[in-house]
Amino acid sequence: MLGLRSHRFETLVLALLSLSFGTFACAPSPDPQKTFDSARQTFIRGNYPKAKSEAQSGYQRFLSHDQMWAWKFRFLEAEILVNQGQSADAGALLLPSLPPQLSQNEISIKQEILQGNLYVFLGRFPEAAEKLRLAEALCEATHSSLAGEIAQARGVLELARSDLENAARLFRKSIELAQQQQDSYLETTNLLNLGVLAMRQQHFDQSIEWSGTAQRMSELHGYLQIAQVATGNLAWDYYKMGDFDRSLILGRQAEQRARELDAVGHQILWLNNIGLVYYQMNQLSTAEEYYRQSLALAEKHKTPGPIIDALTSIAFVSVQKGQLQEAQQYSEQAFQKAHSRNDRASELYPLLVRGQVAAGRGEDKQAEAVFHEVASDPKNDLSLRWEAQNDLARLYEQEHRLTAADKQYREALATIEQARDSLQHEEFQLPFLANAAHLYDDYIRFLLAQGKDRRALQLADYSRARTLAEGLGVLSKKAPVDATALNPQQIARDAHATVLFYWLGRECSYLWAITANRTTRYQLPPSAEIDAAVQRYRRALLGWQDVLKTANADGNYLYNVLVAPAQKLIAPNSRVILITDGSLDNLNFETLLTPGPSAHYWIENATVLSASSLRVLAASQSHQEHGNGKLLLIGDANAASPEYAPLPNAVLEMENVENHFPAGARHTYSRDRATPAAYLGSDPEQFSFIHFVAHATASKLSPLDSAIVLSRASPEQDSFKLYARDITSHSLHADLVTISSCYGAGAEAYSGEGLVGLSWAFLRAGAHNVIGALWDVSDASTANLMGRLYDGLKRGQPPDAALRSAKLSLLHSDEVVRKPFYWAPFQLYTGR
Question: Region 293-306: what's the mean pLDDT?
Answer without folding.
Answer: 91
